[in-house]
């Protein structure tokens, strides 16, 4: 019987210096070399396993990386300062001197803005396509294309990418597949379908407490070593490193990530079913009415449900914000950006997390101005939460 994702996380165990059941936090910014020649060899990449400077590597950050790599099924992983720094460093390392990227158009607004407004300054062009139109994706690939980028479950439209088909396209075309898996940790395993790099904003579900900013890049040993190379590594030379204290916190929180994801999924599924039964325009991948429900069911890990994200279309941003205000007053949730918190968080993407996307492009991707995005928390009684939502919705 194959190992479950929970078991893979559990099997990574680092101990403290005196046998403690958790590793110590190594906050040293630099490390001693007993032989000066070893420092020279480390700078030249001729000696591994030595710690040079925490912008290059750190024992606590490395421990988190090993554990996260087990979660995603990759050879290695590197903690960085934020989810956006994970995306920026990955793209700059893979497309260093101009080139072309094919990207899903239904992506987080910050990623869209980086691709649309920053990458062209570096000579990189980006073509945005419907992530579920495989013919359009393949047609968009040119001889200059270096990367195919998507989100497993898109932000905020909750469209699920055909990871298996994208893996086949990237192999045929000889390009790299980069997948942002922030919405679906444990639920989706992009690397198993051929993703070369898997990215998370650890600020969200990996943290689970909305109390830190962090990101992670999961990939091959070779690519992680490229990122921290002293001469050409983007993370090493631009410095978006993860603090050891953050790495230690995240290391410990990975153990209960499976429990938390199950709880998020159970709460969201309950509410989504109730909303659909009440003819509320809800989008949730766990509903049979979702356009990629069958696809996601076929490709996902079955142990963790369909995630904690759902949306309700209120038609206008004014109506969405009014509903959110009522829900916040009724203690259903909090009107705030981000997601993955123990309590429900609500936002209207068209005027917040997707506001960087021009209105015409929002229309092209079918992003309703009144879409209310709900990151469903697991605190509270499901039935009570539903009654609070319904009472506010019907007012």
Can you tell me the CATH superfamily of the largest domain?
Type I PLP-dependent aspartate aminotransferase-like (Major domain)
Main sheet? 7 strands, mixed
Shape: globular
N-C termini distance: 51 Å
Q: From the 3D coordinates, which CATH architecture of the largest domain would you assign? A: 3-Layer(aba) Sandwich
Widest beta sheet: strand line-up? 1-7-6-5-4-2-3
Order of helices and strands: HHHEHEHEHEHEEEHHHHEHEHEEHEH
Quaternary: single chain
Count, helices: 15
- The number of distinct β-strands equals 12
User: Over all CA atoms, what is the radius of gyration?
Assistant: 21 Å
Into how many domains do the coordinates divide?
2
Low-confidence stretches: none
- Output the CATH topology of the largest domain: Aspartate Aminotransferase, domain 2
Secondary-structure-derived class: alpha/beta
Q: pLDDT average, as an integer? A: 94
State the gist of this model:
The chain is of the alpha/beta class and 395 residues long. It has 15 helices and twelve strands. The longest helix has 21 residues.
Question: Please, could you describe this protein's structure?
Answer:
- The chain has 2 domains: 5-255, Type I PLP-dependent aspartate aminotransferase-like (Major domain) (Aspartate Aminotransferase, domain 2, 3-Layer(aba) Sandwich), CATH 3.40.640.10; 258-394, Aspartate Aminotransferase, domain 1 (Alpha-Beta Complex), CATH 3.90.1150.
- 48% of the residues are buried.
- It has helices spanning 5-10, 36-43, 59-72, 83-94, 109-118, 134-140, 163-173, 221-227, 234-238, 244-253, 257-277, 293-299, 317-329, 359-364, 382-394, and strands at 76-80, 99-104, 124-129, 145-151, 176-180, 197-201, 215-219, 282-283, 309-313, 334-335, 345-347, 371-375.
- It is an alpha/beta fold.
- The strands form 2 sheets. A 7-stranded mixed β-sheet has the order 1-7-6-5-4-2-3, with helices on both faces.
- Helix 3 packs parallel to helix 10 (244-253) and helix 11 crosses helix 15.
- The protein is globular, with a radius of gyration of 21 Å.
